[in-house]
Design a protein that fits this description.
484 residues, 6 strands, Fumarase C, Chain B, domain 1, two-stranded parallel sheet, Ribonucleotide Reductase Protein R1, domain 1, 3 domains, homotetramer, Fumarase C, Chain A, domain 2, 21 helices, two-stranded antiparallel sheet
């Protein structure tokens, strides 16, 4: 079945048909397409365009199509070029000629945009939950390793001692920004295009506000030309997804580093590692590498859609059909990646001894300079003096804390016995109590704040492994009993 | 001057110095860098780390550096590797050894992130104004062309009649989403990293909340490791900019089309056109083409920064130095492009006759089908019947409205005299009064709504051509009189 | 079955398994994987690592696996994490313990790179043929429309008259560069990684040159560390594909323009058009829009893979698993798009009258200036004079050729009667006989040159619609009869 | 001065002028623009369009403009919208009215494409030299560290022992592919557009073959429409540059890893390191981080240009003006990055003891399995047995080589005394003598092959630091003495 063709003489070329068809991709919209059609039938009835009984018949028919689809009994026909065509075709088989009234005053242009937005809003809800679980795994681990000290790195070089809990929470906040962005994107997603028809607005007196309320939209698109051609929401989602992917990639890259034999700070559990087909001793952090790699792929999806949109004429162009594949793929990627990383973090073994052992005295150089500052030495000068101490230790081939007070004084008589104590690590982290700093009290406060934001560990394995299928079933109740 | 080096023996290779130096790019941060330093000096004094008199001296010195910079008297020295170094070096020349106290408890890691955010927030404010002016030009033009009819296009094929005001406003709403996104991004930009030092938090008891208030930040970064490595705000801005660019490219592409000899709907004024070095008759819509092209370049800036961030280890890495060039370039692009497009829209000549003449009867095919629907014919059947009418006209080589009632009835006896009237365009657009539709009342309501959102034409040419330099001067008053 | 695990205690998490598994994507390599394994078995035998009889058994077993796969009888097992595992598992079921010898001295790292390269070389061959067919359609159409005149456009504004054949051939040459690039990429693709094992080189005395010859490789990778981590060939292919896509998008965009009601230069056949679900009169050039849109998607695939590769540590990392999906997708896109566009071009109707009618006298302004030049007027001055003629006509509201000789002379007495003749179009295109120009003789020569390059129309529909499946069967004969 | 305007009434808006102007970017083409104009003047004379004496005057004038430009005496005028306009304007001031003849039969469309290609060919030559120097640094270092053993890594986990020379050369070959690609791109760059005029071919009988020979082009563009709109060469160069950048990023990322305190394999010299403004002990591998970061930025440049090109109408559009900035920036990036990395590699200190110490017995697990294979155990079974040995050692908390022969035999009696010897590292690398493997003889052969390809250390510092300016001066001799 084609939804057009009266004015056409020839048949479409088979390969052209294949290029044109979107069913392989958009069949995933079946659930929301049917929900949208149910609401449309009701709206047509409310507007007096069709009779209440006709709306009943259409809704009952759509319910049956939905049941077939969800029960696995739905069969596509040869000419079904997209999911909208397939559903309308099947509805006709079930409900008879009245099915021909469903598409009144509607175009696939506003229909597909409506479907896509409904789908995406639910997909965002799923990802919000997945993010929350990963955030929960990070906070739980941070609590367990609250006082574990390791070197903080900048430029991948040892910089200053920090708490491992602080490091874990640093990734919590990046994900929190992802949550915020997704929530803001969702609000824009939930603007309803339906009623815009092809581009000029429907020719029938549809109450779009009531229709929006019926479908759960938060607002209605204010301009029909914009409504059918706008894919900002898809691009925004892909950006949010790509940036979330980049956050995961940064956490993953650092954990890959920490799990090398040379660092030895963490070890991934067997459940989240794989081996080698040739090297029997290998245990590889594949999940982390995939997280890092998939950030690149997500970036490509974003770039691709933006390039599709660039330079398009106003309103609807067929190029927009390229919008769904990357959005679906980005969702699927994060839908699996996030729980896998939550599991990876939750089960990784932390080697506290290796971490602490890596905190050598040179990491306290800044504390030593700060010590001089507290004695009145301008910081810039203090930095220079400690730099000379560093070089002295390097030249002597010893650790800084092995230099005697006398040796320190060869550099400057500002170095007193307390200076030696600083380098001994006696008061490690003591001074970093500023808000957001790595001092123990600051991190405790930070952890409390994170918990307030609602992150929690998964309630149950089922919860973590929530099947993607769920997102299509959320509203099944509603569909089963179309409005009277 | 280098801010480091005590522990180094050799000198840096000259080419390496050149690669490492960021001054050519980040000198643009001079104003915000000084503002940040003034606030930091005050914060150090508040924390008792330096004496109030020292803070006074530092602030007065910084004020002098600022005046030199803004007066064009500032001179860079050979070793100034970045703007922070240059300012601190010059401050030392002016204020003497106390200058060495300014960097106490601060790292360039938190300093540059702070500077960059302050700069970007102001840049966003400028772009919001620029967007507002273009929105103003669109609404003003929509008002002037409120009742002008032209074909609406989908697939770049004539689809249905719409109002040109409706088309103009369709671009208004896309820009409105850009405004919304930029505002949300700005809130995230205004989170203060200062106080995070290198990555562990400053070692001095700085009151970060007070410091944030002093600088106008809305919140403080909750984790020092995240704070120095987070560049989400820059990526978000580039996304917002790229998507705005895409909106402009779509409007531009359509206007390029409309200004061809073949369409002839609009003509750009000479003020926004250029000619050819070889073809004397040419008048080219270069501004629109540049708008379209620059969308591609903006997209590359976004992609580039995301690729920089992907896979980076936690906290600060030098790779992050690649962040500023694209953000500055994206701002500069839109800063000029938006007012030029505002001018282009405001001054373009609209050829109402050509537009109306292009609305041939075939564009009323949907109205004809809707007419049958109102008589009880299911839409799907009506669509098929009208399709056959279309073919009949094509085969006869006539326009649809040249078919007689009798000829229509050869297709179906459902076609009555009113059907002929529909094709005559008698009630063109009459039915599109749904919210967001192209009916005159709907567009009037839409226009009123747009005006509520605050879009207005530029108050004055000065306003439109607001020099970018302004964004650095906004707070000059404040800097001149550092807090007592 | 897993090819690793002896050192592991726990089982892999099910979601992690799903994330890690690549079978859904790489099953497509089954054919080349088996070919690679057959060659490897032979190489092991040649090196004396396994007995000739063992090699025979392995090859026979692999042949059976291949037959099952190609006959649709192959069944995956639960633990088959990739195609290599699946094949080796099935081989074990068929051939018994000797199957355990196949992977001797080989790693999946070199195996998958080998498979992927073999697959890609054949894919490039298919695309070369597809490109050739489109080039054939362009040259055939150019021949049919050899003398058809239409306006050439720059900035989408009418510029100078050109031949439509010249326009068609302009796209031929872009595709010819794609051919050249693909051929050069193919040569780099055909460098053999096999024998590099995990990264250090195989521990057995394999004759890699003989192995390469057996598999059709043109050279062997000179460094085993590079060999397992190099994905340049995939990135290059994606670049070639993206640039080819961009060429198609430019041709498509222009044809979309030409097929508007306003231009009316061409009309796509019904076989390569679609209609609207709501507007009965619509006939949309969907194939061209999809060509344009898919260029964006292809660009995203390229960007994605490059982002994956950026910053990866040397040698093999799991991130590289992201390499195949975009390459397969890019191939599939062009594999369908190219023949559809060939059909579109071949069947489009050219409206010569509309084209000729659009060549108004203003397009001869350059010829008029050139005419003055030939009389000794410096071109820059001639350009200015003609510009004034253009303005004169605009102001008078007439076409330039409607100006009398007297009116021309009001601008300059350099305008003689011949000038009037120039504007009449009497010698349209006569002067553009420079090599590569649009003069008729030049285009004839160009067409001859294009034909030399080998472009030809598809021999038969079968040829055009060559199923992608073929690329896996090319060497089936060879596999059936493994070397004695 | 504007090169157009006769038909225009109003003046261009100042901001529009700024947006339109390309001088800030394209002034860099001055040298090649003048060379192109000299050749064009000669060609016009050869075609009899201008007199030989006029050509002499033009060439002499152009020579003077060139001298002013190179001597720093050239001054731009307010209306110089691009470098072509600036040069022609200045030529007019010097040579008088005859300057107005230079642009005869030429458009900026073919002129700028010609200039750009000439510039790019020379830029590629410079980069080829820069690449060669880095390759030279790698081979020199490989020679110096020929027998240094370190762990090879896959998945950033220790995999098998390799030679450091082998690792260094792995990057040599990646760069060798860059060389090959650049050379192939260069050949396509050197196709001459000149003579294509605006898009239809010049109206004068120019001998394009002679003109091409004069300018050093290898061929002439076969189609004038394609010639003015083709930017494949720029996109190709950006791809080559981006991929080269990715190669550098991978080398850099690994060296960053190797220079951590934890790995301690290499230490960058002070000449290629920087310090911290706050942490006195820090020495950061900034050059390597910038190499990694700039790969992302280069990727953005490529993406940006491809997005610009996507969907453009045939022939010249103003969007193409976006082509030069990314190409110049990509060249500048590599022009500095490559010599800095050559210096970094040449001067880095290698810690052979740390490298060797990291080769623990577990890296010989594959050799142990291979040992069993040589005794007739199928590899798959051998892999499993060794995997159990690995676990045994892990559980015992000892290194594999600390297991006694008896303990090995608890796993399998296939383990004999030779097995123990294998794990002792007695014959480390002995078996990797396959072509391309890490065995010493293989690496020696590889090094010899690399040297054949011509890589050599920089002849002198001057050579390394070859100023970019040189590329514009190459042909100065030629310009000084225009053809008689």
């Amino acid at each position: 079945m084609k939804l057009w063709g009266g004015r056409f003489e020839g048949n479409i070329d088979p390969l052209a048909m294949r290029l044109n068809a979107s069913l392989a991709v958009d069949q995933r919209l079946c659930d929301v397409d049917i929900r949208g059609s149910v609401a449309w039938a009701r709206a047509l009835a409310r507007a007096g365009v069709i009779a209440p009984a006709e709306a009943e018949t259409l809704c009952a028919g759509l319910q049956k199509v939905w049941a077939e689809f969800n029960g696995g009994a739905f069969r596509y026909a040869a000419g079904d070029e997209d999911i909208h065509t397939a559903v309308e075709r099947r509805l006709g088989e079930i409900a008879g000629p009245v099915a021909g009234k469903l598409h009144t005053g509607r175009s696939r242009n506003d229909q597909v945009a409506t479907d896509f937005r409904l789908w995406l809003a639910e997909a965002i809800d799923v990802l919000a939950l997945r993010l929350d679980h990963l955030q929960g795994a990070l906070t739980a681990k941070a609590e367990a390793e609250l006082e574990t000290v390791l070197p903080g790195y900048t430029h991948t070089q040892r910089a200053q001692p920090i708490l491992f809990s602080h490091w874990l929470l640093s990734h919590y906040w990046a994900l929190e920004r992802d949550q915020q962005r997704l929530a803001q994107t969702r609000a824009r997603v939930m603007t309803m295009p339906l009623g815009s028809a092809a581009l000029a607005g429907t020719g029938f007196p549809i109450d779009r506000a009531a229709l929006a309320a019926d479908l759960g939209f938060e607002s209605i698109a204010p301009n029909s030309v914009d409504a059918v051609g706008d894919r900002d929401f898809a691009a925004e989602f892909l950006f949010d997804a790509a940036l979330a992917g980049i956050h995961l990639s940064r956490m993953a890259d650092t954990l890959i580093l920490y799990s090398t034999a040379e660092f030895g700070f963490v070890e991934m559990s067997d459940a989240y590692s794989t081996g080698s087909s040739i090297m029997p001793q290998k245990k590889n952090p594949d999940m982390l590498e995939l997280a890092r790699g998939k950030a690149g792929t997500l970036l490509g999806m974003l770039t691709g859609l933006l390039a599709v949109l660039k330079g398009l004429p106003s309103a609807y162009d067929k190029d927009l059909q390229e919008d769904k594949a990357p959005v679906f793929a980005a969702f699927d990627t994060l839908d699996v990646l996030l729980p896998v990383l939550a599991g990876t973090v939750a089960t990784m073994r932390v080697n506290r001894e290796r971490m602490r052992a890596a905190v050598d005295a040179s990491l306290l150089a800044t504390d030593l300079a700060d010590h001089l500052v507290k004695k009145g030495v301008p910081f810039r000068q203090a930095h220079g003096l400690v730099g000379r101490v560093v070089r002295k230790a390097l030249e002597a081939g010893v650790s800084m804390d092995q230099l005697s007070a006398a040796q320190l004084r060869e550099v400057s008589d500002q170095f007193d016995d307390e200076a030696v104590a600083v380098l001994s690590g006696a008061s490690l982290l003591a001074g970093r109590t500023v808000a957001g700093g790595t001092g123990l009290d600051s991190v405790r406060a930070q952890l409390a704040k994170a918990r307030e934001h609602g992150a929690h560990a998964p309630a149950s394995p089922d919860d973590t492994h929530w099947p993607a299928r769920h997102i299509d079933q959320t509203h099944s109740e509603d569909i089963m009993h179309p409005a009277s």
